[in-house]
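Wait, mind explaining this?

_____
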Amino acid sequence: AGVETVKRAVELDLASRYQESLVCYQEGIDLLLQVVKATKDDAKKHRYRQKISEWLTLELCHVLLFSDGKYHKQIRIEENATGFGYEKLFQEYLSEIVSEVWVEDPYIRHVHQASRYSCLYNFLRFCEMLVKGPCKVKTIHLLTSYDEGSGRSQQMSGLEEIQQSLRSYGVTLNIAFSSSIHDREIRFNNGWMIKIGRGLDYFKKPQGRFSIGYCDFDLRPCHETTVDVFHTKHTKKM
């Protein structure tokens, strides 16, 4: 697995997809270091260490390129733009090593009044993407705020249902609440952090239950927002 991951890093490097290449180099080297620790054959250990040394040199070049290992890319989603479903936005950062995800969003709750749409469904769609892979997520941490008034019971019921459903796929959902949370960000334990101005709720309401874009988020018009993508080897935990 480590060799295949590094091969993928080389392919991405040649394609000038440096940020993805950096992550693959890091993951591949980590996997190979585990192999070295478990190998008793001294000759094999020496060969492994030589290759790891070469790959570490390549990784260092990327680290320098991304200013001491930190990388920043900004994506501007225009008003009514389409083609920004969750898979399209997040997939390149969800490598196989991702096993833990942190979501901070104050508005994972039901929308009131006449709206048929709910931010809880956005979160559910995001969880579905994680379950499909290629990552092997085992734990999702959600930090949000309580809904107001009578909406709180619906919010809790919805979150508990998502939690129970994820459990049947071997994924644990940890839910915490904060009355002071304002920032919206998503973090993966491979070092990627995504900040979206509108959080997960950047899609417009569908025109109807049988309109194009109701089921496929890639075809759903978006609100104008900005997506900032960062990479760092150290991700904070809640």
Summary: The first helix runs from residue 2 to 14. The domain at 1-66 is CATH 1.20.58.80 (Methane Monooxygenase Hydroxylase; Chain G, domain 1).
